[in-house]
Amino acid sequence: MAFPFDIGFAKSARAAGGLVILLQVAGQTAASVDDVDPEGAVARAAGIAKFTGKALKTLDVLAPHGASADRILVLGLGEAEKLTAHDWLKAGGAAAAKIRGSEKATIYLDAPGVTVTARNAADFALGMQLGAYSFDTYKTKKADDEEARGGKAVKVTLVTAHANAAKKANDISDAVAEGVILARNLVNEPANVLGPVEFADKAKALEKLGVEVDILTEREMKKLGMAALLGVAQGSVRPPRLAIMQWKGGKEKDRPIAFIGKGVVFDSGGISIKQAAGMEDMKGDMGGAAAVIGLMHTLAARKAKANVVGILGLVENMPDGNAQRPGDIVKSMSGQTIEVINTDAEGRLVLCDALWYCNETFKPQFMVNLATLTGAIMVALGSHHAGLFSNDDTLAGRLTAAGLATNERLWRMPLGREYDKMIDSKFADMKNTGGRYAGSITAAQFLQRFVKDTPWAHLDIAGTAIGSPTDEINHSWASGFGVRLLDELVRANYEA
Ligand code: MN
Ligand code: ZN
Questions:
Q1: CA 475 to centroid of ligand 2, rounded, Å
Q2: Global confidence as pTM
Q3: Is the Cβ–Cβ distance between 411 and 388 less than 8 Å?
Q4: How far is the centre of ligand 1, averaged over its atoms, from the C-alpha of 330 (Å)?
């Protein structure tokens, strides 16, 4: 993958032109680097501007005569004692924004008053790559600075005492950046380009990283009895696919862990058609599948020591003479029957067969599914937390902790018998909506009917995967939410 920055690490460096960035924690001075600033111009400029190293504030300094840099920039880190992993990512993203248009940059990470670890340096580098991401595939006119670079990566040297260890840690950062960028690209891609078949091809492409990939066609899914998933797809001229990815990095005897993604490449709502305003956003209704494929890429690229299954349910939901109707009753692979009350509650119909298939085929240690499932979760939590529903406190706790570590935060929502009753149907075993109230919860109850006693969690990422507020490490409509979160979950708990 072509990154915007070509990042190297060094114990010391001479800037020899280009942009130099110095870091400064609150209440301290910036590092003084002799050849960069032989006359102490930075300290004088900081005094005049009352620059104190507040987080993400910057100070531009005209490079003095005799300096080896063309431009000097000081970047504030905030209070040293409060620095989190995410702060290092954001600092990297802020640096990236300042480097745009430069030919090269040298960044001195070691600042007075803070000990910079290899992981901090690698997080800074990750923040740079993610922060500079933009989706401009379809812009025939590139931004001026892009044009000037001619698509070439900017050379960046990160200077730190732990350069060797940081370089190693950065291999992992690169794997994570690739996974997040893959997920963002897929979500940003329009549905006329990315249908179920094309998405499945993206999964197939992971074979070059050593992932085993099987793609089930419509006929094979019919044989398996996946009528719930197939019912959603039947109004589209584009056939559905189920992508099954296996990364076998763990011990042979270890049962796999499993991630399942909703991949509705476009959700018109079907016969229960959505209103026109904002419907274009429904090209992103495959954000769950995008996170799962991004995660599988990351795990394979960094050779994670775990056995992991990733499954994508890939369909398009369209109104058509052949589309399913409200009132239709379908029989899921589990044998349970479903009355389709609203054809726009299609994600759960796709996931229920994917979850059942996963559980029966792989007997996983746990299943985590991700889906842009309900508008109701946005009513409850906005865009700052994804909804977490789980039948297992250990899994829920680990997911929550991974969310805090990566700042891809989760908030646990309730499940319960009373909510489950809300989806009982007059005509079938269940119906696919429980009405307006508790809409994100009844969706989760529906899914729970397909996981038996396997530890399971459902992440409703409708508010966090698309159109969420941008920040230093994401300026894109698609955030790639879930890749860093789940990579952290695996890394912290499931690698021997
Ligand atoms: Mn829908
Ligand atoms: Zn949907």
A1: 24
A2: 0.97
A3: yes
A4: 17
